[in-house]
Amino acid sequence: MPTTDGVPGPLPGVYTDKGEAPVTDLIRGLVSFPIRDPAALEERIADIYKPGGSRFRQYMTPAEWMAKHAPLEKDVTVVTDWLKSEGMQVPYVATNRLLVQFVGTVAQFNKAFGVTLRVLERKSPQGGNDPHDVYGLVESVKAPTFVQQRIHAVVALDLPAETGTLPGEFGQPSTEPPNPVSRGLTPQQVARAYNVDSLYQRGYQGQGMKLGVVIGASFRWKDLRAFWKMWGIEREDPKVIQTMEPPVTRYREGTLDVEWAAAMAPKAEVLVYMGPDARNTSMLYTYNEAIGRGEVSVITTSFAHREDSEPKAVHEAYSHASTMAAALGITVAAASGDSAGVDVPGNSPYVTAVGGTQLKMNGMTVTGETAWYYSGSGITRTFATPEWQKGLFPMPARRAVVDVALNADTGYWYTWLGVTTPNTGTSFSSPIFAGIMTVVNGARADAQKPRVGWLNSQLYTLPAVQQTFRDITVGVTDRQYEAGPGWDIPTGWGAPDAEGLLRTLP
């Protein structure tokens, strides 16, 4: 039954209770629905990723997934009709029917769910904003039984998306490389560090593949084009898919995500799934929609949420979508975050959590790589230890992250608001890894092999794949997780080798 698990409550250092919400305030939120027949879906996924099995890499189509595992349309309609009967609007229903967005007043929500909404000030927000207000509860929701029986939870309550017009793009960024260029890493250096340049040289640059980038808010086209031209990358513009209300602002996070994912797979078609902002309603819906549409072979998101500050039902809603991705053969990569703890959605077993390293290069030569002090990593609070992760080392019976790691600091060059500057974080690591996996998928397609899909089960059970990674054995995080031989919490199996992944993944 739904409880306050899906809606935040007061939490020291994160959510501060500011009192009852004004009843005339407008709000937006999400209702999540459970996957239908989840046991059968788990069994099917296990078969899909069992090398040598009769169903190995026989991915489900979106239509098949909908027919067997999507919430029934009649159940979703019962809930949306009820929301409308309570005076609220339902502007968006997710393609896979796992999420419904509603919009209304605080008074309407309070009456419908039998609660009194509170205003909470949220610190450590996403998207680089100052602390901002969200809505929360100190009690359980009390929807009618016929609604409770059909839904998973209320998983987000936010201010409405901002309205207005996206400002025009001013100025023309320079396309000259910065001087000295050694202050940050270039796409060419990164391609060499993770051996994707060897695939480029053989003609594999992601052509024929679609790469999805999940972002909140927009970017400047001038920045993207200048960045790629600066580093000699010839590529088509990405395709933007607005998943909800149109954005009226731009964030550096989405900018760097698109710049680097597209740079690493220069011939791939990049689909940018764009929500209106970086609040929970926007990011969860957009992430789910990117998967539910079933258009791409790889997805990346760097809009990570700290696990310890998000309700459990939010983790579960992200993981429901991630489970669908595994069934459809979509590789999902997520930044592990820069708080040295566990982040969402990388805590899901169906997401490859990409941690951070400190990479040292002398020109085009790697001279060292260690665990990054701030890399998000640890033991999840929500998900049990997957079968493929059992026995790695003595630990609680829960999933551990990360799975792989790439450079987060030394900084990377990126162009934002016309200025090219270096910056750090796992926000770069995930789109770079996603770009690498897209190139690997393109090379596999040329050899008449299916795309890689869900990576984790293969990575943890196939020694040949593990051995292609550059083992990171030195370094410690802020929470005292140490790197060591083989798999470890700060860096997972280590740094990827694109040529090795192409050679060893069945």
Model description:
This protein has 506 residues and is of the alpha/beta class. The chain contains 15 helices and 21 strands. The strands form 6 sheets. Strands 8, 9, 10, 11, 13, 15, 16 and 19 form an 8-stranded mixed beta sheet that branches. Strands 3-4-2-7 form a 4-stranded antiparallel beta sheet, sandwiched between helices. Strands 1-5-6 form a 3-stranded antiparallel beta sheet, with no helix packed on it. A hairpin with a 2-residue loop joins strand 15 and strand 16 (365-371). Helix 9 (252-264) runs parallel beside helix 12 (426-446), helix 10 (280-292) runs parallel beside helix 11 and helix 12 packs across helix 15 (498-504). The longest helix has 21 residues, at 426-446. It is globular.
SSE topology sketch:
Blueprint: E1 15-20, E2 26-32, H1 38-48, H2 62-69, H3 73-85, E3 89-93, E4 99-105, H4 106-113, E5 118-122, E6 132-136, H5 145-148, E7 153-158, H6 187-193, H7 197-201, E8 210-216, H8 221-230, E9 239-242, H9 252-264, E10 269-275, H10 280-292, E11 298-301, E12 305-306, H11 312-328, E13 331-335, E14 343-344, E15 352-362, E16 365-371, E17 378-384, E18 398-401, E19 404-407, E20 412-416, E21 419-423, H12 426-446, H13 456-461, H14 463-466, H15 498-504
Parallel strand pairs: 8-10, 8-11, 9-10, 11-13, 13-15, 15-19
Antiparallel strand pairs: 1-5, 2-4, 2-7, 3-4, 5-6, 12-14, 15-16, 17-18, 20-21
Helix pairs in contact: 8-9, 9-12, 10-11, 12-15
